[in-house]
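Duplicate of #3305? Posting structure anyway:
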């Protein structure tokens, strides 16, 4: 797999794109719209295990989880292992972006992502 090769060659996982200040996880979720669900999880795990900052903000103040919620076209059920993995590793669902919205706000706004509220449990109702 290309990600494993790049990591084995010392690719800097926290390198940020000059234009949008996105790291590899931002770019992955923003660019790979309909991957195989297992590939999505495996790529996420590889990048996280390599030390990528899952709470890094791009120039719009968005963390990678925001793009996993708003851009990736897989169903919420298919994405649930990725969401759970990121949240379990500390992805800050309450981090506000430049539009003053959190990942929880986007889950509530995007009706097809409402299934993610069950993963967040009562936390989705809190204002943090």
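Output from current build:
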């Amino acid at each position: 797999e290309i990600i494993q090769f790049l990591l084995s060659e010392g690719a800097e996982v926290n390198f940020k794109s000059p234009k949008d200040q996105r790291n590899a996880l931002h770019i992955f979720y923003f660019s790979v719209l309909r991957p195989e669900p297992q590939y999505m999880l495996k790529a996420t795990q590889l990048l996280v295990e390599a030390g990528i900052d899952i709470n890094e903000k791009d120039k719009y103040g968005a963390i990678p989880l925001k793009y996993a919620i708003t851009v990736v076209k897989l169903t919420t059920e298919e994405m649930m292992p990725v969401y759970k993995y990121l949240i379990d590793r500390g992805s800050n669902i309450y981090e506000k972006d430049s539009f003053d919205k959190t990942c929880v706000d986007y889950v509530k706004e995007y009706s097809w992502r409402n299934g993610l509220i069950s993963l967040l449990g009562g936390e989705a109702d809190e204002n943090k």
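Confirmed duplicate; merging threads. The CA atoms of residues 9 and 107 lie 36 Å apart. The helical segments are 2-8, 24-31, 37-49, 64-70, 76-88, 103-109, 117-120.
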